[in-house]
Amino acid sequence: MADSTFVVGQRWISNSEAELGLGIIKENAGRRIEVSFPAAGENRTYAANIAPLSRVQYPVGERVKTNEDISFIITERHEFNDCFVYQGSDDEGNEVSIHEMDLNSFVQFSQPQDRLFAGQVDKNRQFELRIEALAHQHRLQQSSVFGLMGARVQLLPHQIYIAHQVAQRHAPRVLLADEVGLGKTIEAGLILHQLLITGQADRILIVVPDSLIHQWLVEMLRRFNLQFTIMDDERYDALIEAEQGNPFESAQLVLCNLSTLTENPALYQDARDAAWDLMVVDEAHHLQWSEQLASPEYQCIEGLAQHIDGLLLLTATPEQLGV
């Protein structure tokens, strides 16, 4: 607060809801104050000692408007019973004198200079807290484990090492081939989390067998707080019908099962046309290839991989089926 004294009739502005315009103190009940915001037709009740309000004090030379939409330049400002009385002249030279209650309420201080000149400034301690917070944030961002330590899981040393090594690469294209039970999903989640946190990736597509799609959805949300959207035939058709553009561009993080991609040519084409930073493919050993014939699943993933810079292939059996 710019001031700790609240008097009925004073004009204040909300620091957290500047769009409400100028507020008027309607009641001061000691520990509680009631403020009316005529421009928004809203009332707010605050605890007096922590009210997020700043006193509005227009300086001499400022142009203001009255409730009757009369514009004038302030030449004098007087204080009467802890409220301001503004005096000045309008564009036609007529003298104007109004109580601050009669100021036009449709005012917002969105620009820094407007907030400064209106006295809507924070206490220095709040500024110092922001500086301290930014310094801590910068220190955390320089850590080599930034983005790796937020998972709700007991990490193993090899998982941290692999995730860190992969996430340090620009547009990584790697095969994760740990044995069953060693946590490839966790490793992939760590990689995704760090790439997203550090800004190296924004849009991610995960392709999995149909039986694993909900497992991936839950694991990403529960362990990494990553909320993926499942793109199935039903959702795809609904978005197409709504004419909202490419359905795959309706979300940044998308889960799709492999059979949907291979069996729906239109859906596959839209997945290809959408811009992705990274694709993750689970159970990659099901992508069969030989010199004579490549499976539809292999051709599907190959086509997507040609248009996506980053690629993670997950398999527990890398030597089977020629993978």
Explain what the structure shows:
The protein is α/β, with parallel strands linked by helices and 323 residues long. Helices cover 29% and strands 24% of the residues. It has two domains: 11-121, SH3 type barrels, CATH 2.30.30; 157-322, Tandem AAA-ATPase domain (Rossmann fold), CATH 3.40.50.10810. Helix 9 (296-305) links the parallel strand 14 (278-281) and strand 15. The longest helix is centred in the middle third of the chain and has 18 residues, at 124-141. It starts with 10 loop residues before the first strand and ends in a 9-residue tail after the last strand.
Shape: elongated
Which structural class should the secondary elements be placed in?
Answer: alpha/beta
CATH class type of the largest domain: Alpha Beta
Number of domains: 2
Strand order of the largest sheet: 10-15-14-11-13-12
CATH topology of the largest domain: Rossmann fold
Strand percentage lies at 15-25%
Distance between the termini: 65 Å
Q: What is the chain-wise order of helices and strands?
A: EEEEEEEEEHHHEHEHEHEHHEHE
Largest sheet: 6 strands, parallel
Any idea what the radius of gyration is?
A: 30 Å
Number of strand elements: 15
CATH superfamily of the largest domain: Tandem AAA-ATPase domain
Q: Please give the count of helices.
A: 9
List the keywords:
about 325 residues; elongated; Rossmann fold; alpha/beta; 2 domains; five-stranded antiparallel sheet; SH3 type barrels; 15 strands
